[in-house]
Write a structure and sequence with these properties.
The structure is a homodimer. By secondary structure, the first copy, chain A, is α+β, with helices and mostly antiparallel strands. Chain A has four domains: about 20-120, Uridine Diphospho-n-acetylenolpyruvylglucosamine Reductase, domain 2 (2-Layer Sandwich), CATH 3.30.43.10; about 130-250, Uridine Diphospho-n-acetylenolpyruvylglucosamine Reductase, domain 3 (2-Layer Sandwich); about 255-490, Vanillyl-alcohol Oxidase, Chain A, domain 3 (3-Layer(aba) Sandwich), CATH 3.40.462; about 500-544, Vanillyl-alcohol Oxidase, Chain A, domain 4 (Orthogonal Bundle). Chain A has helices spanning about 20-30, 80-90, 145-155, 175-180, 190-195, 270-280, 295-300, 320-325, 345-360, 380-385, 415-435, 460-480, 495-500, 505-520; strands spanning about 35-40, 70-75, 95-100, 115-120, 130, 135-140, 160, 195-200, 205-210, 240-250, 250, 255-265, 290-295, 335-340, 365, 405-410, 410-415, 440-445, 450-460, 485. In chain A, strands 12, 13, 14, 15, 16, 17, 18, 19 and 20 form a nine-stranded antiparallel beta sheet that branches. Chain A has a five-stranded antiparallel beta sheet with strand order 5-6-10-8-9. Bound molecules: flavin-adenine dinucleotide (FAD) (2 copies).
Chain lengths: ~550, ~550
């Protein structure tokens, strides 16, 4: 796509004159150093995963000038974050904190309000403050990626501790966790595994949660709760504070591990499979957040463009996918279960035998002999991730379209055949309606599963973008009709998703707004994130 | 103790005239039915565990007229709770919700502010609203005890699901959980195991948290977080809302279990034992919240009064305790580790062998052949509790003194020899100073341990009560000096404990107060609980 090389005028946040804004920025430059305040007046470049922009969403679903930052600032410590917050209050300028800004599929680095000043915390606040080999914990700043944490642990020779990484290892441990992201070892529920936050409030004060509030403590990372109200939760998926430090627990090396892969032939196998998975998962025979993936995404994950297989428009036909699958080392199938068993060999044998006898009850189910799979096969990416080794193989399915971008639909349900079937049917119908290929993957938590549907689209094709967004909007509402809600969503869909959580006349949003107004009276921090608008913005047409 | 049988004038909350108060109560009677509003004008009877009072703390550490309710009301559903809250706002009357009021050691059923109207939720709101045998979850009202939940599951024949109970099974599942209590199976961290709340806010609105906010959902009890800020935590150990329903996950029957007991001879064995326990616990070889108990409490747990062994004042001498211990089936020791291994026999064998080889590294360590222990032995109470079977054997050590009452000191530390030694020394010195017998028990969580020190005292002996309280006050401050804080505390100590969480000039309390003022502008809900005073009370000498 041709990039317009001329200098752009920076977008200015609503309600402030351009000159006043530039003066305010100059003041901030005086405080942080001119080189740590960047006006966003250069061409918007999308880059790629490892060199992503912090000014906008590199996988934008709207025009990229829509959710765009006016400037980006780079604090180096908590005090500077506090200064920025006080500055924002003084001038009523919306600020939007990111850790590393790799929130792809959910909005990337973009702010919700056009012209916000993005606080890129990760660039300079990227220290691992502690790795504790006795307590199996660490304390990180926003700029520590899963890769960086993994490497630091390896470097110290701490073989006894694992990290848990999401599918892509380049994101920030802190950013992913406060957005309540998930990984694929038994420590996959990142939020449940964190312990202790340091937070700068929207009025500039710093607090430490849990045991962190006790001076001289040695328990901040080992006991999450502290005394009194346990407030960490309200800083996840919210706009109530800027998290500047986070404690995280580390998984003990289980003393052995072994991935496995089962394939299932028919679409209808999904329901009985889920019924088999549920009790095994709740009993920890299936131990990790495993994935049940559809074959279409397996084909896409090979990294070849869709045009290799099919050059017409509309969803790629089943027979083409199955023909392609038949030629892969894994062979033809509809669903694949990627799992891992942990512990010494004889303990694994016990669990794997149980899994095997249960899974094979489904006619046509096959245990794949993974020793025959070539090193580049997707299976090995799942193997690494489930062993806590960061990876980026998963990016490959983004090649499915030219200028590949994606946006996620992520509803939650119990682990049940009926729910899986209902969600699959819902997703399929909407994708068919909009002529989009359907990539469903069920990530099975403990008592619940996240269905992650990734819509891959050509981000330079306005029609494709619109189809993807329309499809998603339908999906959110249709799912809500059936009682399913999203665990997390894209910036552009936050208002819509928040509205589906409407019990008792929207009581939870009224409650969220009450907290927002108390904590952020000037409404400067990430207005609109997760659908929460501060008083100053409310009812003025900001929702979308 | 002689009870004064004459009718008492009910205590009236400060700031309202007696007549106005009685009129307001009459109005409430009109709303709830006269029989559901009880003025507290009868003699205060302490009763016993199974028939405890709801008007005051049956184990009071102050004069029982100090923290006493003016009236007790009995709502039957969420709407009536909302009515009571609106009524309290109208007349500015402090209300104090309890679930079952068996919070012994931490204040029992007493309100923090003298003359509060106690809302006894448990009496009429005691339904198990759901037990889900597929998802292994339940939904309970405040009046469901661990016994009641256990029995309902047994009755349905749901052998595949366990509950987790604290040491005493008579408390409320909901009340215990929102006070962040603990039990002794792998599901011992009750807060971590809950999923979904219904809460009446201090201004009367009802919210449902997590997936409960989505109409028609089937995920309220299987996915805890929902979308947007995860607000459950601020309703635990707080005074921000009245919880009217709570979801709880149930543990899958592990397919076998086996308790074990090791004894260790010397006080100094504590430090190396903790170093051995830590990695085994974090790796889940030790699977439950086990207890490491001191022999003095083991003797007391036999249920005989202290006078059986020693009739002088001052702490009971070591040699007497050891002589008594030598005569018990377990034999003499200083520390006992009560644990349980879960799963099929060959899986348990693997874990138990590891534990055995590690524990026996400590000279003098002994594995007790528990098959020789008589059925009434304390070990079997731990066995039941670790298998999710509610029990009340634990009450026996309250017989240690006449009119036995107790109050708890519960600091948290990492699982470390140095910390265990420091806390033990600290506790011992303070108990010696005040002439009190020292009952330390370390409850080993995952990366942290709660030291639970129970001071047993004669509640009719003013001097003994004062010694216990003075000792506790010293302990709290001395522990904080060393960086240790309490995970939970008695009503009377809440201000003091909250003050130890003082990082950055008491930033967390200022934050808590900001939330309190936003949510409870009239300051009617449980003023002072966990040290949080609403504006109307702040700085007016209510702290103690
Ligand atoms: C192919 C692919 C696969 C993916 N797989 C997964 C997966 O398996 N699991 C998963 O969870 N995600 C997945 N994602 C989504 C996303 O890439 C990750 O969640 C990523 O870790 C998020 O980016 P980040 O960590 O850099 O967070 P950021 O972008 O830095 O943060 C996310 C959001 O949180 C808020 N925030 C961040 N930091 C702060 C702070 N310090 N204070 C206050 N608010 C803050 C901001 O609103 C920000 O937009 C995937 C994405 C792609 C493209
Ligand atoms: C011998 C002995 C052993 C014990 N062992 C343990 C143990 O192993 N683990 C443990 O955790 N505890 C233990 N305890 C302490 C206590 O008995 C239990 O925690 C008990 O479960 C608490 O009482 P409850 O459940 O009836 O809660 P309640 O007394 O009903 O509630 C506790 C407090 O929470 C608040 N609250 C309750 N319900 C609500 C509501 N619906 N909305 C808002 N606020 C509410 C109130 O402030 C109340 O005072 C022990 C006590 C004794 C005497």
């Amino acid at each position: 796509k041709p990039i317009n090389e001329r200098q752009r005028l920076p977008v200015v946040p609503q309600g402030i004159e351009r000159d006043d804004f530039l003066k305010a920025l100059a003041e901030l430059k005086g405080q942080l150093g001119a080189e740590h305040v960047e006006v966003n007046d250069k061409p918007l470049r999308d880059g790629w995963y490892m060199e992503h922009p912090n000014t906008h969403d590199m996988m934008t679903i709207l025009d990229e000038e829509e959710l765009v930052a006016s400037a980006v600032v780079y604090p180096s410590n908590t005090e500077e974050v506090q200064e920025i917050v006080r500055w924002a209050n003084k001038y009523r300028i919306p600020i939007f904190p990111i850790s590393m800004g790799r929130n792809l599929g959910y909005g990337g680095a973009a702010p919700r309000v056009r012209g916000s000043v993005t606080i890129d915390l990760g660039k300079r606040m990227n220290k691992i403050l502690d790795i504790n080999p006795e307590d199996y914990t660490c304390l990180v700043e926003p700029g520590v990626s899963f890769y960086a944490l993994y490497e630091a642990i390896q470097e110290k020779g701490y073989d006894h501790m694992w990290i848990d990484s999401p599918d892509l290892g380049g994101g920030s441990v802190l950013g992913n966790t406060i957005d309540r992201g998930v990984g694929y070892t038994p420590y996959g529920d990142h939020w449940a595994c964190h312990s202790g936050l340091e937070v700068v409030l929207p009025t500039g004060e710093a607090i430490r949660t849990g045991m962190g509030a006790l001076p001289g403590n040695n328990t901040w990372q080992s006991f999450p709760y502290g005394f009194g109200p346990y407030s960490d939760g309200i800083f996840s998926q919210s706009n109530y504070g800027i998290v500047t430090k986070m404690g995280m627990t580390l998984m003990p090396n289980p003393g052995g591990y072994e991935s496995f892969l089962y394939t299932f032939q028919k679409e209808e196998d999904l329901a009985p499979l889920m019924e088999i998975i549920r009790p095994l998962r709740i009993s920890n025979i299936l131990e990790n957040v495993a994935q049940v993936r559809h074959v279409t995404q397996a084909i896409a994950a090979r990294g070849l463009p869709r045009a290799t297989f099919f050059s017409s428009s509309g969803p790629i036909p089943n027979n083409i996918i199955h023909a392609a699958a038949a030629k892969t080392p894994v062979g033809d199938h509809t669903w694949a279960y990627y799992g891992m068993s942990y512990g010494p060999a004889h303990i694994r044998a016990h669990k794997l035998a149980l899994v095997d006898s249960e899974f094979l009850k489904i006619p046509g189910a096959k245990k794949i002999d993974t020793s025959t799979l070539p090193p580049d096969e997707y299976f090995w990416a799942r193997d690494r991730v489930a062993a806590g080794v960061p990876d980026i193989h998963e990016l490959r399915w983004v090649n499915w379209t030219p200028n590949g971008a994606h946006i996620a639909f992520s509803p939650v349900s119990p682990i049940r055949g009926t729910d899986a079937t209902a969600l699959f049917a819902l997703g399929k119908a909407a994708h068919d309606k909009y002529g989009i290929d359907f990539f469903p993957a069920f990530c099975v938590g403990l008592r619940e599963m996240h269905l992650i549907v990734e819509i891959v689209f050509d981000r330079d094709d306005v029609k494709a973008r619109k189809a993807a967004l329309d499809c998603l909007r339908d999906l959110v509402d249709e799912a809500a009709e059936l009682g399913y809600g999203e665990y997390r969503t894209h910036l552009v869909l936050m208002d819509q998703v928040a509205k589906t959580y409407s019990w008792n006349d929207g009581a939870i949003m009224k409650f969220n707004e009450k907290l927002k107004d108390a904590l952020d009276p000037n409404g400067i921090l990430a207005p609109g994130r997760c659908g929460i608008w501060p008083k100053r913005y409310r009812g003025r047409g900001w929702e979308m």
